[in-house]
Amino acid sequence: MVNKIFFITVLAGVPLSVVGRFMHWSEVLMFVIYCVTIIALAGYMGRATESLAIVAGPRIGGLLNATFGNAVELIISIFALREGLVAVVLASLTGSVLGNLLLVAGLSFFVGGLKHKRQEFNVYDARHNSGLLMFAVIVAFVIPEVFAQGMPEGKTMALSIGVSVILITLYLGALFFRLVTHRGVYQHKSEETGTHEEPEWSKGKALLILLISTGAVAFVSESLVHTFETVATRFGWSELFIGVIIVAVVGNAAEHASAIIMAYKNKMNIAVEIAIGSTLQIAMFIAPVLVLLSLLFQDSMPLVFTLPELISMVTAVLLAIVISNDGDTNWFEGATLLAAYLIMGIGFYLL
Amino acid sequence: MVNKIFFITVLAGVPLSVVGRFMHWSEVLMFVIYCVTIIALAGYMGRATESLAIVAGPRIGGLLNATFGNAVELIISIFALREGLVAVVLASLTGSVLGNLLLVAGLSFFVGGLKHKRQEFNVYDARHNSGLLMFAVIVAFVIPEVFAQGMPEGKTMALSIGVSVILITLYLGALFFRLVTHRGVYQHKSEETGTHEEPEWSKGKALLILLISTGAVAFVSESLVHTFETVATRFGWSELFIGVIIVAVVGNAAEHASAIIMAYKNKMNIAVEIAIGSTLQIAMFIAPVLVLLSLLFQDSMPLVFTLPELISMVTAVLLAIVISNDGDTNWFEGATLLAAYLIMGIGFYLL
Amino acid sequence: MVNKIFFITVLAGVPLSVVGRFMHWSEVLMFVIYCVTIIALAGYMGRATESLAIVAGPRIGGLLNATFGNAVELIISIFALREGLVAVVLASLTGSVLGNLLLVAGLSFFVGGLKHKRQEFNVYDARHNSGLLMFAVIVAFVIPEVFAQGMPEGKTMALSIGVSVILITLYLGALFFRLVTHRGVYQHKSEETGTHEEPEWSKGKALLILLISTGAVAFVSESLVHTFETVATRFGWSELFIGVIIVAVVGNAAEHASAIIMAYKNKMNIAVEIAIGSTLQIAMFIAPVLVLLSLLFQDSMPLVFTLPELISMVTAVLLAIVISNDGDTNWFEGATLLAAYLIMGIGFYLL
């Protein structure tokens, strides 16, 4: 059913995006069309990646998921960087972190908790992820912010590059740790899911779909970025709000859906892996890669967020760690995360 | 014994308060009389609430405790708001949070630990409370502070109202969670205390005493608020110090006493429930209710503390979470909390 | 082997230090000689303290270790204070906290983890230490910083003295707790290490060596402090960088080595005790003692760090707590701590 809707959306959305753009339809209308089309295309990218991951086995599959999991976000951001929209990119990174940590995890815990009284997930993974969240957001994002005060711009950029290289290195280290040196070490046997999963598509078909949908996302994203200014003016939204809420929700919609479905099916390990794993990928891989890529464009992007962005991420991480650290969830823990997201959403709207 | 002292204090304090006020006795003397009288009256309110709670059963009883637990604090604050003493109210909220988290919990752990080598309390409750402390203080108090910088006053108030409504909603959600959907889910059977408690007073008598003592507290509090300025000038105290230390201690004295007695009797679950539960009630219910009530007065109160107030609460919460998270206490953990309270007390005194 | 190198280094280093100083050799050369000599002398002080601790039994031994463990750091700092180098002393305290928490613990976890898949240490100790780290760094260091903004200097100093006295008192309380009232309470029997350790040196010899090497360290440290300015100018390093990285590494080199060796031998309890215990000694004993001692000199030292110093320590503590709290380590947790140290190192270098 969902797949059918996605199919029709793509079938209609891509041509409409092309036609509308060259016919100069209303930018607000095009903004909506672009957003919906990207969400549907992201669904295809996700399914293609999953099929490839099953074919390729857990190691290469883990790498694939890690690389393409936030590809949409990455593509939109690159086009935004090319337009010099550094503030929008930083805002959308913030939005992805908040969205995954509070909205996705919150909805998963809440919806799952409505059906199941108590849900559990691997407590070792929770702690491993807590350490990385602390490192990425509380150390690697906070330090450049504090040290950059009163630094000349060149040094701020040097610090940002250094931090980015360290973040990417540690992210690769984490993959190596989980997929090679400590695979299964912190896992109960019963947890091994999907012993004999069948891929949805064959290797060739999956590759083709991944290629085409990625290309389509790139085209639509490039168009989307140009509508931001008009939309911001029309609705009285700040660029910050567009980045933090709109881009983040569009870029992560596919993941949101699957995490909540997994939680409803009581597969909390996967739901948490999507929510927290995606947060870590944004913070430790996408963000630093964008910093490094920005050196190719006219306006380079330092790893320096605005204070509201940074404090939102820091408090979200502290809340998520305290709530997830015992590996036990219920509807109320979900509600707490959602309440935090709501507070920050109001804050960014009013800013 | 204690009850007798309270009886005599009320018997003497209330008339003295009335007479002294209309005879215009020295304001410093009246300040002392008011404070002592309120502490004694709060004792009566507490006992009446407890009797009613036993009669009404755990659900309604929980609601009653949740509503009347910090009634004194609420009453004093409303009168202070009517006088436009917004800063004093914010300070006394801070003082209640610090007082409950560090002073009450600290004294309980310390005094209990002098008698018992190790004391334990329900680790699930500890984690549930940790999540709420993080949410209330680290998210809901910090976000308005950070976002309000550079916001026009109207938006700050809008943000404060939004955060307040969310806080109250989640507080009610927490009651629903603990009293309805997950009652006893996270509890060991052996923990169920007081299977057949007898109420001290009959329903009618308890209601009458609650009504009269609440009325008396209201009258005395209204008088107390008018003495702040004189006392501040006479002793060289800042309004901040009066709010953070004096009002907070007077408003919470009754709870302090019972938490420490419970800890001494090794009933740590109840002692912690009083200390942390009261903190949460202040932060998630009293504070936002006061923000909303302040809209009725000339000076509305945003949920924006001074930086020393906010940082004190944030660090107190982090310390309390790390110390209480394992559900195991001893005298040294109590001493650590007390030492933190002392440091903040010196800070506010010097400010 | 290592002992032989230390022996030769001391035998050559001390005379070279004396001769070089009075012959006015190049200050950069002398800086290197002083640093190497102090590291070797610190090795002797450590071994002498250990021998005395074994002879004296666990209580007095614990006290001895607690007092002489960071004696080198203390001696260098006193001479720096006498020269009015308040900023260097605060920076070197910061560097010791960061060095022990991130570099020493990080290297221990990493090197130990290369040999052993999972290593464990006493989880009660980890939690006890977490509480103290929170108290010392997050409460006792943050509060003066925040409250001092806009305070006159005299009050800042008063607050610093108050906090220092409380820190020292609680540190002594912690020793009393661990060595007297709760000795062995939180310990598994199997953990009791070294039931019949033989001291390396006799009591008299150990005392003599401790006395002589302490005297030599004092002399060399006094000389070292005078080279800072020249070295800073020559290499373009800030005083902050010298304090945070150089002085901290020199002052703690001996401990670094033994912690890593212990981790390699899978004696994680001792490795963690050295890393975290030393951090706590710096924060709760050396730092406040230096504040009080500074009253004897012309420039008194408030307990107010620069913002980059404070935020580095706060984030390091939060990271270390989340990573160490489960009492389980592996190479990747070590790598995470080292990555955090590297980020801060780059930051201080660029500042």
From TrEMBL, chains A, B, C:
Residues 28-179, 206-344 form the Sodium/calcium exchanger membrane region domain. The keyword Membrane applies. Keywords: Antiport, Calcium, Calcium transport, Ion transport, Membrane, Transmembrane, Transmembrane helix, Transport. Its main location: membrane. The keyword Mitochondrion does not apply. Belongs to the Ca(2+):cation antiporter (CaCA) (TC 2.A.19) family. Ca(+)/H(+) antiporter that extrudes calcium in exchange for external protons. This is Ca(2+)/H(+) antiporter. It comes from Priestia iocasae.
